[in-house]
User: Fold these one by one.
Assistant:
Number 1:
Amino acid sequence: MRKYDLLGRRNFIKGLGAATGVAIAAPAMALSEKADGVKWDKEVEVLIVGSGFAGLAAGIEAIRKGAKDVHIFEKMSYFGGNSAINGGLFAAPGTPMQKKEGIDDSVEKMVADQIASGRGIADESLLRHVASHAVEALQMTLDAGAEFHPYLQQLGGHSVARTYQTSVSCGAGITQPLLKECRRLGVKTHNRAKFEGFILGGKGNVVGVKMRENYHFAEDQPGKVVNIRALRGVLMATGGFAQNIDFRMAQDPTLTSEVGCTNAPGATGEGMLEMFRLGAVPVHLAHIQSGPWASPDEGGFGYVSNYSIFNFPHSIAINCMTGKRFMDEIADRKTRADAELACRDAKGEPLPPILITSFKDSKQHPNTAKVLKYNVGWKFDTLEALAKHFGIPIEPLKAQIEEYNSYVKTGVDKQFNKNMTKAKDKYIEAPFTVVRLWPKVHYCQGGVQVNTKAQVKDSFTGQPIPGLYAAGEVCGGIHGVSRLGSCSIPECMVMGMTAARSMMQA
Amino acid sequence: MKMLNIVLALVLGGLVSLSAHAVEQRPWHKEVIGKDCKVCHDNGIKQFPSDQACLQCHDVDDLAKKTARSEEDKWQNPHNNLHYGKDLPCQECHGEHKSKQPLCSNCHTFKFDKYKK
Ligand SMILES: Cc1cc2nc3c(=O)[nH]c(=O)nc-3n(C[C@H](O)[C@H](O)[C@H](O)COP(=O)(O)OP(=O)(O)OC[C@H]3O[C@@H](n4cnc5c(N)ncnc54)[C@H](O)[C@@H]3O)c2cc1C
């Protein structure tokens, strides 16, 4: 896995030795400034920063609402951000497929589920706004040519099946069609263009941005900063900060570089930080979600994540030091992530625990073949071979499996009180498949505060900062303590569409 | 192939520039590029080449054909992949003067024969 220097500090220092010109590439120099005397290099009608779900949906909607000159700027060489690597799970209430399957759902039900998982501190008005428009967003993906599996899924924390998934089981099944649609409609897309600061009018209103062109992420190349005027406003759709280790540790010191990350490399959060400098309200920054289903044997989300999400209910997680279970395999994400991080060797170094599944059960999931093929999981014919491979003491392991299998029989887990319903009749027996587990930082609940018009609020006045809009993971507070799976896509898309509508009405 | 010939002609036509820095270069490029850095460095010598530079000689569709994989793994084709289609700029995975990792390795352990690791 690559190690990025997320704020470019190391590059900065290195760059000073190599070429002084590089100094201007340091993000520390990025600051917003007044428009007086600024020489405009370019002028656009609608300016969008970030090319994930939020930015792409906004681009399409702006054109539909009559904009003639819409531009999306993306700092990476490629478009799509986290959205292009996401799992493609999209929740919406009251969809055609729910009607077909006879599922009774409503905006109220979806909001209630989300408030429960948000532990009461979610923003109800925003959740309601998103749920009310989620079907429109889904329709936008269909109109652009996205395809979905012909069935609904009911993910953890949802009271009904309301989740669509793209037929490629990945967010790219949405970002690729949306990007094509943007271009078909005439939205101009710019890669290697990094937002570095706002340009402000007399009343503190956002009138444009400073954009570094010809930017090469994680490389020593200065590029060139241009001043771009935005006639209808600026939409920040720059995503979360899960890849920014310093900043996430400032919020939660346990999220060190030892904890991997499922996000795209560009999720470093400087767009969000710049909005804070401008006066945006920071909300819920410390609520950062780690995925306990990830593997240290591959980078990012990889193949193991979906494999283990599927297999946890009928598997056992084992601490390699002790040969014993150490958690309820289907507890909430935070409980499991903390338990995994506590698995260490005698010196205190990380010793990733393993997930043991009977091959007959694991192979029901399409990823199992890939996991074995790409050596991020293993198949063993005997428990002895398994124990030897991971250096696990065999006797305790044997005893543990026997004990667990008795819980499968009785339906009561005396060790961790796991809900054994889905483990019914699924004994842990050879041959086994095994993956290693280690949590990865996955989603940032926190960000800037917005209202239901996608306007960014000022922390002193409580009023919207004129000309500034934000949508997607860069916004905070919407989900509260914990986001429900499949609820980010509708949020990003609906808020992106909302921002475009607000800009066109302003 | 046509473009390749044009570049060859340019190089042989005496456009070979002075810059004689000992930089690492892919052996198979030496013949066509020679020492004329500008063949690729269309943004100026001190800048990375533009995302279009490699496409003077290489055709994305040809590359995609060359690296096609079986139906089961068809989306693991680096030149036409699930996440970015044929849109991924060459420099994301290829460097003329230094070795790089394929972008896929951020999340996947796919084997690509031409990469050492
Ligand atoms: C592996 C993975 C799987 C997931 N699966 C699901 C799922 O199945 N369902 C679900 O609902 N949610 C899922 N999520 C969460 C969801 O994908 C993200 O929350 C969502 O994609 C965020 O979209 P966005 O438009 O806000 O930002 P992104 O898609 O991250 O886009 C932001 C873009 O802005 C760019 N950018 C950042 N800073 C700058 C700057 N200074 N200048 C210019 N550009 C900049 C970034 O490079 C990036 O391309 C998943 C997340 C991950 C990481």
Number 2:
Amino acid sequence: MKVLEHWLPKPSRFILYAILFTVAIYYLLPLYVMVTTSLKSMDEIREGNLLSLPNSPGFAAWAKAWGEACTGVSCDGLKGYFWNSVKMAVPSVLISTMLGAINGYILSKWRFRGSEVIFAMMMFGVFLPLQVILLPMAQTLGWLGLARSTGGLVFVHCVMGIASTTLFFRNYYVGIPDELIKAATLDGAGFWKIFFRIILPLSTPIIMVTTIWQFTQIWNDFLFGVVFSAGDSQPITVGLNNLANTSSSVKEYNVDMAAAIIAGLPTLFVYVVAGKYFVRGLTAGAVKG
Amino acid sequence: MSQSVTTNYGSLDKWLPKLVLAPSFVLTLVFVYGFIAWNGYLSFTPSRILPNYDWAGLIQYERLFDNERWWVAVKNLGIFGTLFMGISMALGLMLAIFLDQKIRMEGVLRTIYLYPMALSFIVTGTAWKWILNPGLGLEHLMHQWGFESFTFDWLVNTDMSIYTVVIAGVWQSSGFVMALFLAGLRGIDDSIIKAAQVDGASLPRIYWRIIVPCLRPVFFSTLMILAHLAIKSFDLVMALTSGGPGFSSDVPATFMYSMAFTRGQIGIGAASAMMMLATLAALVVPYLYSELRNNKHG
């Protein structure tokens, strides 16, 4: 909004910047504390304070968090949990995004009697309090032989992801002109040909948004992880929580912080690399596409 | 418009879309609506450690409403929800309006405000737990800086523990609210503002009387998302306080989890989940209804 620029006199612009930077410090504080603490030794943590910089920064706490820290009974660090999360997130993201693309294509370009109702029914899944499905799902996963396994988590994330991925793709595809489809059908293209030749090549932005959205959701999930997995199938969020809440005589905050960063790095990385799409993904669910 | 398109296709293409959509629809039907019904039925049974499908009427709801811990959780959700939504909205709107004033480094600031949203509540809960712990965290820092009498023990104080959840929750979500409002602000037609300026309205007045009212739909969506986050919030509480000390910072989501999965009270757990669903449905169904109606016209 260029017009407003000249309306603010100099002193109030100074205050504006002061406020914005103060708030920025508030947002950065936990990250700063996490990083600096993870680089300190426990002695240094006790002598220094929250904001002091590490005297001799080292990655000992990181190594310990990755390979040796105790989470409950076992003392193998977070590495196992980390790979569990990778094994869980990658297939879940791919499958749920694919389903969303096809559903969104049908619900926007191949509407039929009742398809709006189906869309509305699916959309409620975005808001569903997941607590309602926990008990039946636990039982069902047992019947399917998927209880306490990574496969079970993939299944749950795919099923529960359909609602949001469909919503994203549907809202995006509504913006693609119907005339394009009409022209293609006149040329004799069918359902799949239109999807693969016309729709999919136009979908890169929404595929990015949905993939990032699903990845952060699934990587960061804790509820499904803690309820539906056990032992060697638990994801990183559960591992981190176990580690941070393991009651040992000496609390190693540096290891806790290193572990927290390890658990947060993949999504943070995505945010830094694909920030533009990340924001779009966040806002897409709310501000109509 | 698409309806007219479909009539031109052959018969295969007529049922193919329905066939392809069917698995997702069936999954939704079973895993959302079927499970709601299933969970609902469980809430009317005497189930404890194992599910038991005898009909027991409303006993689980009676036990739920007689449970002191449930009311603590409900009250906490009230406190947390109100403050979390109120502060996030106020802070988010303020930041969005400020960032909209042609700020240099807007991109950098926006990035900083938003990054917490990329992290999981478990990660940020762990970090805040360390910052807020009375032993070596903020309190220790203030003592070292010479404020010997400074105490900040909310994390271990039964009366205050829920407020630490608010602090971390606002930190996590206010940047996201900012992004929503900023997107809304950028979508407003400049000519309205120009007209107001010509009429001699001051900047705060323009915002208060023209721009903020224009943001009403964004306001509404944001409120919906925050309410939904608040009702579902489980991870943050688990990571920060695990519902403690005692059960002083329990919310319905953690209450449900501990009843259903650690204390062998499946019936009460199912009943509390139904209460959460009812609360959310009361908020979301009217919202979705109006959204979809608008979509049809738009």
